[in-house]
Amino acid sequence: MCINILVLIKQWRNTMNKIMLIGLSILSLSQVASANISGTIGMESEYFFRGESQGEGTAMQMSLHGEKSGWFGGVWASEIDHEVSSWEHNFYGGYSFDLSEDTNFYGGIVKYDYDSHWLKVGPDAENDKNDLKEYFIGGSFKSVSLEHYVDSDNSDITYTQFGYDLPLGLAMIDLMLTWGRHNTGEDVLGLKGTKAFGDWDISVMAMKRDEMKSHSSLGIHYNF
After folding, report:
1. What is the DSSP code string of 40-63?
2. Are 153 and 126 in contact (CB under 8 A)?
3. Considering the entire predicted model, what is its pTM?
4. CA atoms of 20 and 140, how far apart (whole Å)
5. Higher-scoring residue by pLDDT: 141, 172
6. What is the distance between the alpha carbons of residues 166 and 173, in angstroms, rounded to a whole number?
7. Other beta carbons less than 10 A from residue 1's beta carbon
8. What are phi and psi of 16, to 5 degrees?
9. What does residue 22 show for φ and ψ, rounded to 5 degrees?
10. Torsion-angle region of 23 (φ positive above 0: left; ψ -120 to 50: alpha; else: beta)
């Protein structure tokens, strides 16, 4: 009984520490008067990453993003269905600059954390799923974008993605085609259509990775 009580107290303290850290982070961002703060909350019928499903079921997702003087950072979270993890949390930061009105370059780092709880800050020492860290660089010119990701521990693990906003003249619908390639040579093809209704977005996405099952997803997200 005493051991159970001590475990509960430890879990409660860890949870409160996470809440405080998240609250302080949000408060710090909101106090920067000139910063642009935005976020989303919503749900996908299935979450898949680079052509691989992260759990065949609905996934709640949320994000918080801040920008100031070219610097940016934020956190993105999604439900997943792994044996040892129920949530994925991505912490990222970097710098972006405009070379011209149509040309933009950026780079930074993203940390992928996995945990059995949605309130998560920092690495997880309680499960055996490896957390990941990647460096990334990217750029865009008008409707074309190119991004390259390199694993911090193994430079041979890379992923490159090309994106193209299709110029179909459909002002009411945003349509994007993506092509990605893993260092193993596997290709990932994706197509996403998004329709905005005020602060709400409804999207349909389809993705196919070589030798893997095709995936499709319906999403709805609120933007603030």
Report:
1. EEEEES--EETTEES-SS-EEEEE
2. no
3. 0.78
4. 37
5. 141
6. 10
7. 5
8. -65, -35
9. -65, -45
10. alpha
Helix (H, G, I), strand (E, B) or coil at 188: strand
Q: How many CA atoms lie within 13 A of 207 on its CB side?
A: 22
Residue 21 tokens, joined: 């850290």
For residue 181, give every residue at least 6 positions away whose Cβ sits within 8 Å of its Cβ, in sequence order, or none. Answer: 159, 160, 161, 187, 188
Contact 178, 192 (CB under 8 A): yes
- For residue 6, how far is the Cα from the chain centroid? 35
How does pLDDT run across 124-169, given as a tens digit for each residue?
545 445 578 999 999 999 999 999 999 988 877 899 999 999 876 5
Handedness of CA 46, 48, 139, 123 (dihedral sign): positive
pLDDT for position 130: 56
Residue 67 Rama label (left phi>0; alpha psi -120 to 50; beta): beta
Per domain, the residue ranges of the chain are 1-31, 36-223
Fold adopted by 36-223: Porin (2.40.160)
Looking at residue 137, its amino acid is I
Q: How long, in residues, is the chain?
A: 224
Contacts of 174 (CB under 8 A, 6+ apart): 165, 193, 194, 195, 196
Alpha-carbon dihedral 12, 17, 19, 22, rounded to 10 degrees: -160
